[in-house]
From TrEMBL:
It is found in: Nucleus. One of its GO terms (molecular function) is inositol hexakisphosphate binding. This is Integrator complex subunit 4. Residues 900-1023 form the Integrator complex subunit 4/Protein SIEL C-terminal Ig-like domain. SUPFAM superfamilies: ARM repeat (SSF48371). GO terms for cellular component: INTAC complex; integrator complex. Residues 670-890 form the INTS4 8 helical bundle domain. The gene is Dere\GG19041. InterPro entries: ARM-like (IPR011989), ARM-type_fold (IPR016024), INTS4_8HBD (IPR056235), INTS4_C (IPR057412). PANTHER family: INTEGRATOR COMPLEX SUBUNIT 4.
Length: 1027
């Protein structure tokens, strides 16, 4: 067939009825026969590298087999083709034209054009070999004293072919050509380009290159290090860093590269340090003796050298933390990690901004540093106790040896005072003293941000340092840059478990709560909820300030509620002491009942109720009206108010039956398995199957509402089961004629459920995706059958959709089957040792069912896929299709859902947005989106529906999506969308509701709603004319 199923007839274009004039349904076959090995000859019209055929005029007749290098073994072991056979062949003998200045210029222009236009994707092995031979032969025809640009361009074409090679044989062929050509080359410009070509191939195909070729390429690069060209030396070092094996790097190349740290060229020095870092990152053990060379390189005049030397000092300090080295300024011995920490601290005073930023970032990774060195970074003064201390015995012995008497001014006096050398005052380098303070006070925000991040990392590993650094992080709340303030807030949130806030620190923090930035305010709410306070006065300060700021910024109520919840959970005893004061409870008189809709009163209730969860006696202090308010809040805000033993509270009777069933099953997972086993039994029945499946569907829906952890799994199975029920109901319509209107609605609902399964769920494994695609295939087949039977609308669209869906599932099955069959070649050893953290291969035991296999076989046998022909072939299969089994429960499935916070559903009914007709009203829009993948952000849409059924779709900016912050840092998949919506319309007689909804645009004309719509009252008023 056409687009969906591959046919072994090459690439062609068909129409449904076979006539070229019909353009409505154009079905194209996928040109993938070459991948399947069905390409008969390389020279047919499916060649991908047709642009290189323009070089035939310059190559001439290529003797068959004369230029192919042996690929079964390395070139050095088998021998390269002799120069008599390859390099010194006259042009007349090969039939190529003689190269002149004009021809060389034309060839160079042609090569530049080919390089810009060529595409290497999906190139066949045979074609690649022929093209590589052609380029190799053309390179041999170039004279050594000719223009080097031609040879450079030819090497670039060879490297492009090598980067797209998929097998070991193809890669070794290209590398063998490059090695042979570079050994014969004398131009340093061409050799430098050849080294870069080898480096690119190593970057793209490092796991395909065999170990013997790795050694050979690295040896070739080692020979080029003696070149007089610095460009060649730098590129050769890159090749060594990419191709040298771990053992060879430790034995031969580390000290060879270390020799070039003292090169006269700054680029060579920087490249040598960079390649040493690359070898270390790939697993080679860098000796501790390199530390001294790296420290000397940190004093280089060039920034690029100092930057790489700083990285090397950091790596050596972490690799050899306990290696003892002599101190520079005293006859003392230091641990290498302490000495490296001091050197990195000194780099914070470098003149270069990039080096200061890098030094500030690297400090956070040196967690093994000694306590004295770490705490000294927060003090600018050289403390007296950092002097070299002598024992009393040493002092007495020195006094006796001097022959002088003590002055007797005080006990154990060391007078006369010896002469102190300025270099011997401190065993800690002066750069380490106050290094982090220097970073926090830097004039550039990049340095300050990096210093705050490093301070946070060090504080997480050292609780005593967290207490010391608290004051400095709090001072950063007053920074003039918002990003720095946010970084300080989130850093303090991360280390909150190690600290307790004092009253003076709270004053600075609470002063920042009135910041104009909503991100800063929400970050402070998160931080205050994570921290602990020391006294009742501190707690009252926090609560009162939060209530004052809430009155000023009502839009912060959601983050304020969450903050109050955390504060109550962390301070139950303090809340008990101030609960009466916060609730205005009089000891003798009954106070009036407060409004439960008041945000300030809600904050206090949330605080008290969450504290009562951990300290039940608080309930006895609450007035009677508070019990009724608890029942209301427990039903309206279950995520903020916990379950408490208060009489009169709602028991959630709607889900009581499911609750008892879950308790009886033992866990949500066991109850889910029980539902799935019941569904399997229902599929074996014939009578009342649909009613029983609908009951199971409601159970799955309620299970997701009870257990948030099982929401994604249960909702996925519930949506799958709903689509299965719709298919079963429509199968009955395939044999009888029904009315068209409900048929269209039910078909649209079925397709929408299939799109939901495909696009709104993440974490699906191979079996889940296969079942969803099979369900979509059944829905499309049933859609075509019903439309053809209806005879009131065109069947071209449903037929096209069926063929596309069949092609998609066929490609999916073949691609995964091919991935299982392909194994890495035995000789292709990776350059880098295998990572133990690599993901395990996904189990792919799931197979397509009999209906899918038969349907694909039927469609594959149709040569002219017209709707009528396809309908007659698939009708028996659709009528007799057995139900599709539900996929097994997968607890990693998550569903993308949204919650609109602004405009608020409760307050939007009271506030009418009034605007002159034709003008624009700006409405703030805030929504939280859970489990949103990075690829789905571009498909997110805001749909605005006016009362006259006009709909507008708004595409939010990518910068409006920001990750939701938690106490552990940024959430991976939960984001907050904060933007502004513009509303405009003509004159209305009265205010009406405008619906605002978040959708996911999966295809043109199809949006999947992610939440319930938020309604706002909008009233465009007529224009006033005159006064």
């Amino acid at each position: 067939m056409a687009l969906a199923i591959k046919k072994r007839l090459g690439t062609y274009v068909e129409t449904v009825d076979g006539a070229p004039a019909v353009k409505k349904l154009r079905l194209q076959t996928l040109a993938a026969d070459a991948k399947a090995g069905n390409f008969g000859k390389v020279g047919n019209e499916e060649r991908k590298l047709t642009a290189l055929s323009q070089l035939d005029a310059y190559v001439g007749n290529l003797p068959a087999g004369s230029l192919v290098l042996p690929t079964g073994a390395p070139v050095a072991l088998t021998g390269a083709p002799s120069s008599a056979a390859l390099g010194n062949q006259p042009a007349a003998a090969t039939g190529a034209p003689q190269m002149t200045a004009g021809n060389s210029r034309e060839l160079l222009e042609l090569l530049v054009k080919i390089t810009d236009e060529i595409s290497y994707e999906d190139v066949e092995s045979g074609e690649l070999n022929d093209v590589a031979n052609k380029i190799f032969h053309l390179y041999q025809l170039q004279e050594r004293d000719s223009d080097t640009s031609i040879r450079v361009k030819l090497l670039e074409l060879l490297s492009g072919l090598g980067c797209e090679c998929a097998t070991e044989q193809e890669v070794t062929l290209i590398i063998g050509y490059l090695i042979f050509l570079l050994r014969k080359e004398v131009s340093q410009k061409v050799i430098a380009q050849g080294m870069m070509c080898l480096f690119r191939i190593g970057e793209r195909r490092k796991h395909v290159v065999p170990i013997s070729y790795n050694k050979q390429v690295a040896h070739l690069a080692k020979e080029q290090l003696r070149s007089g060209s610095t460009h060649t030396q730098k590129n050769a070092m890159l090749v060594i860093g990419r191709f040298a094996t771990k053992m060879e790097g430790e034995r031969h190349y580390v000290w060879k590269l270390a020799f070039y740290i003292d090169s006269q060229d700054s680029g060579v020095r920087a490249q040598a340090l960079h390649v040493l870092l690359t070898l270390g990152e790939r697993g080679s053990l860098l000796p501790a003796k390199l530390y001294k060379r790296a420290v000397e390189a940190m004093k280089d005049d060039y920034e690029c050298v100092r930057k790489e030397a700083l990285r090397l000092v950091f790596m050596l300090g972490n690799r050899h933390p306990d290696h003892i080295i002599p101190s520079d300024r005293q006859q003392e011995e230091l641990r290498m990690i302490d000495a490296a920490f001091s050197k990195v601290c000194e780099a914070l005073c470098d003149l270069s901004l990039q080096i200061r930023v890098l030094a500030a970032e690297l400090l956070g990774g040196m967690t093994a540093v000694s306590r004295e060195f770490l705490h000294q970074t927060l003090d600018k003064k050289l403390m007296s106790n950092l002097r070299r201390k002598r024992t009393a015995h040493e002092r007495g012995a020195r006094l006796v040896a001097s022959g002088e008497w003590s002055s007797g001014k005080r006990w154990a006096d060391d007078a006369p005072q010896e002469h102190l050398d300025a270099r011997s005052i401190s065993i800690i380098a002066s750069g380490a003293c106050g290094a982090l303070i220097h970073g926090l006070e830097d004039e550039f925000l990049e340095v300050r941000t990096a210093a705050v991040a490093s301070m946070c990392k060090l504080a997480l590993s050292r609780p005593d340092f967290a207490v010391t650094s608290l004051d400095f992080l709090v001072d950063m709340f007053n920074d003039e840059i918002e990003d720095v303030r946010l970084k300080a807030i989130y850093s303090l949130t991360a280390i909150a478990r190690h600290i307790v806030l004092r009253e003076d620190q709270l004053e600075i923090m609470l002063g920042s709560l009135e910041d104009y930035s909503v991100d800063v305010r929400e970050g402070l709410h998160l931080m205050l909820g994570a921290c602990r306070v020391s006294t009742q006065t501190c707690l009252l300060m926090v609560v009162q300030k939060l209530l004052d700021v809430l009155a000023k910024y009502p839009q912060d109520r959601h983050s304020t509620y969450a903050c109050m919840r955390k504060i109550g959970q962390k301070h139950p005893h303090l809340v008990m002491a101030v609960a009466v004061h916060l609730l205005y409870v009089h000891p003798f008189f009954e106070t009036p009942e407060r409004d439960v809709e008041d945000p300030a009163y809600l904050c206090v209730l949330i605080l008290v109720f969450n504290a009562a969860e951990h300290l039940v006696p608080i309930i006895s202090l609450l007035p009677t009206a508070t019990h009724r308010h608890y029942a209301y809040l427990r039903d309206s805000m279950p995520h903020l108010v916990p379950q408490l033993p208060i009489e009169g509270a709602s028991s959630a009777s709607a889900t009581h039956r499911i609750d008892s069933a879950v308790r009886q099953a033992g866990s949500s997972a066991e109850y889910l398995q029980m539902i799935l086993s019941h569904i399997e039994e229902i599929f074996t029945m014939t009578d009342e199957r649909v009613e029983l499946l609908q009951t199971a569907q409601s159970n799955l829906q309620r299970l997701g509402a009870i257990d948030a952890g099982m929401y994604g799994t249960s909702n996925f199975l519930e949506t799958f089961l709903a689509a299965q029920i719709q298919i079963e109901q429509m199968q009955r319509c395939a044999s009888t004629q029904r009315s068209r209107v409900p048929l269209k609605e039910s078909l649209a609902a079925l397709i929408r459920n299939c799109l939901k399964l495909q696009h709104t769920f993440s974490g699906l494994n191979y079996g889940d995706i296969l079942q969803v695609k099979q369900l979509r295939l059944r829905a499309c087949a049933l859609h075509l059958v019903l439309v053809v039977r209806d005879r009131s609308q065109s069947a071209l669209g449903p037929c096209q959709m069926l063929l596309q869906t069949a092609g998609d599932i066929s490609e999916f099955i073949k691609a995964n089957t091919k991935d299982e069959e392909e194994k890495p070649p035995m000789g292709a050893l990776p350059l880098i040792e295998p990572d133990v953290s690599m993901k395990e291969p996904v189990s792919r035991d799931a197979q397509p069912d009999s209906f899918t296999r038969q349907l694909l076989s039927k469609l594959d046998g149709i040569s002219d896929p017209k709707p009528g022909r396809v309908f007659r072939e698939i009708l028996p299969l659709v009528q007799q299709a057995p139900p599709l089994a539900l996929p097994p429960a997968n607890d990693k499935i998550r569903r993308c859902v949204a919650n609109i916070l602004e405009p608020c559903p409760l307050q939007s009914q009271d506030n009418v947005i009034k605007v002159t007709a034709g003008l624009i009203a700006a409405v703030p829009f805030v929504a939280e989106i859970d489990n949103l993948l990075e690829s789905q952000k571009a498909d997110m849409r805001i749909k605005i529906k006016y009362p006259d059924q006009h709909m507008h779709t708004v595409v939010p900016k990518q910068s409006d999506f920001k990750p939701i912050m938690t106490e552990q840092g940024e959430h991976e998949t939960n984001v907050r969308l904060r933007t502004t919506i513009l509303l405009s319309h003509s004159v209305w007689t009265e205010s009406s509701l405008v619906e605002i909804q978040l959708c996911l645009a999966v295809r043109p004309g199809s949006e999947l709603e992610l939440c319930k719509p938020a309604n706002v009252l909008f009233a465009p008023k007529p224009v006033r004319r005159g006064i």
